[in-house]
Amino acid sequence: MIELGLSRISRLLQQTPLSWKAIHIAGTNGKGSISAYLSHLLSAGGVRCGRFTSPHLIDRWDCITIGEDVVQESLFRQIEARVKLRDQTLGIGASEFELLTATAFEIFNHERVDIGVVEVGMGGRLDATNILSDVLVSVIAKIGLDHQSLLGDTIEQITREKAGILKAGVPCVVDGTNSIEVIRTLDKRIRELGIESNFVRPETQSPLLGRLFATLDLQPHQQANMSCAVSALKLALDRFRPEINVDMLLPQLSSVVWPGRLQKITLGPLVSREEPVLLDGAHNAQSAEVLGQYVDRKLRTEHKNVTWVIAASTGKDLSSLFQNIIRTGDKVAVTAFGPVDGMPWVKPADTEEVASCAQSISETGLVQTFGCDVSAAIEWACHEANGGPLVIAGSLYLASDVLRLLREAQKSS
C-alpha cells in the first residue's frame, strides 16, 4: 500500500549521510522526461550522475541509472538486501517505495555520483524522496488531477502538495505552461519562501534551443519539458560547476530516448505486423490529452480510424482518460496488465468496465476484451488494424508488459 510520510525514510537513512547533491523534480506529467534530459546532459558534461525515477519500466532496478546505464542487478540486490535488513532490525516497517528510495540513494553513495536527479514518487511534501536536503534546484513539471484520494480533490490542493519539495535557499524552475490556478498557487509558496524562481515557457527560450525544437520536431509538451530541464541544468551548474557551458551540451538532447512515451516500436517477432506501433504510458487525463492530440495530428492523416490496445489501473477516471484518445469508429482491444514487481498494491481496472467506457466513446467501433492476455489483445489489434495506425496506451504498466513480452520473444527467436 501507499504510505506517505517522512518518518520511516528518515530512520532508514539516519546513519547514511548522502554524499551527493540533488536535482529534485515533482509534478503530475513530464517528471520522467525532464529527469532523462537532465541526466543525459549532466553525463555529457562530465558530471557523474545518478538518476532515480518511478515506476520502473521492465525490471525493478531499471529505475536507477548511473551515468546513463542501468545499475547492475547484483549491486542493486546487494544494497537492497542491506536496506531491508536494517528495516527489519530497527522495526521500521518501511513501505516498498521507501525501501526502494533508500536503496537508490545508497547506490548513489556507493557509486560516488556528483549529482542525483531524483523524481518524486507521489505528491512531494510527504514523498520519501523529500528527505533530500542538499538540493541544487527544485523543478515543478506539469501538474494535473491525479491520485486525488491521497493528494487532494482540487488542483490547488494537489499543487500545494507538490510544492512541498520547494525549500528555502534553493532556486526552482516551474513549467510555465501550467494552468493559471497552478501558477498562482506555486507563486504564493515561492513568495512565502523568498526563493529564486524561473517560470519557463518554450517560446521564451534561447534561439539555440528553439532551433533544436524545430530540428527534432518536438510536441509542445516535449518542448516544455526540455525547456525546464535546460533551465534547471543552468541553475544547478551555476552552483556546482559554473565552468561547464550548457549551450555546448544542447545538441546532446537529440539522442535522449525515454521509453514508453510516444515510443515507436516494432512488434516482431511477437506478431507478424511490420508497420511501427506507437507505445505510450499515458495514464491520466492530462497525459492522455497530449497523446490524443499527437495521434490526431500524426496518425489520422491518411486513416480515419485508429486501433487501440488499452488497459488502466484501478481508481482511474476511465472516462476522462479514454475520451481524450479514442474517437468514434475506433477499434479497441481491452486487456489488463499483470502483477507489478515491488508494487503489489497496483491493480488493473476491470476489463469489462474499461470496455464499456471505450464502447460508449467509440460508439460504432468494435471493442473486444481479452482479460489479462496482453499477447492476444495485441494479435487481435494487429489483425483489425491491417497495417493501419495502432496505439498501445492507458497505463505505464501495460507499456512495461508489452516491452517485457517483446524482450522475451526476441530472446527465444
Automatic annotation (TrEMBL):
One of its GO terms (cellular component) is mitochondrion. The keyword Nucleotide-binding applies. Its EC number is 6.3.2.12. GO terms for biological process: one-carbon metabolic process. It catalyses: 7,8-dihydropteroate + L-glutamate + ATP = 7,8-dihydrofolate + ADP + phosphate + H(+). It is an enzyme of class 6 (ligase). Keywords: ATP-binding, Ligase, Magnesium, Metal-binding, Nucleotide-binding, One-carbon metabolism. One of its GO terms (molecular function) is tetrahydrofolylpolyglutamate synthase activity. Pathway: Cofactor biosynthesis; tetrahydrofolylpolyglutamate biosynthesis. Belongs to the folylpolyglutamate synthase family. This is Dihydrofolate synthetase.
